[in-house]
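Check out a protein:
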Amino acid sequence: MTEDEFDAFYASAFPRVVGQVYAFTGDHGQAQDVVQEAFVRAWDRRRDFLATQAPEAWIRTVAMRLAVSHWRRARRWLDLVRRTPPPEHAPGPGPEHLALVHALRQLPDAQRLAIVLHHLCDLSVEEVAAETGAPSGTVKARLSRGRAALARILSADENDALGGPPSAKETGRVR
C-alpha cells in the first residue's frame, strides 16, 4: 500500500472504526486513542498491508485488543489501589516549617531563591549561580544577606510567640 493509498484508507476508515470501538468501550477519547495506535502499527507494515484481505478488520481487531489491554491495566491498578490502605493520618507541617515559610516570604525574591536552591535543594554556590545566571560572588552575598534577614525575622517571630520584648542583644542595642 502506498502512502497515498494508506492516507485514503485512513481518511475513510478512521471515523467508522472509532465509532465501532466507541460502542465497545463507551469512551470516545479512548476509542480515538486506540484506533490511532492501531493505524500507527499498520503504518509500520503498510507495504504488506495490501496483502491482507480486510485491512479495516485488522485495524478494528488491533484497536479492540488495545482497548481491552487498557481496560485490564486500569482494572489491575484499581485493584491495587483498593488493596493498599490509605495512610492513617498525614501530619500537617509543624510550627517550625510554617515559621520558615513565613520568613522566606518576607525575603526579596533573589535572596529567597538563593536560600532555597542552596539550603533546601542542596545546590552548590556555583550551581546556584549557573541556574540563576548570577555571578558566584552575587550568590554568596544573597545567601549571606538572606540568612541574616531570616535570623532577624525568625528571632522576632520567636519573641512575639513567647510574648516578651527582644533583648538588647537581639535588637542590636548593646550598651
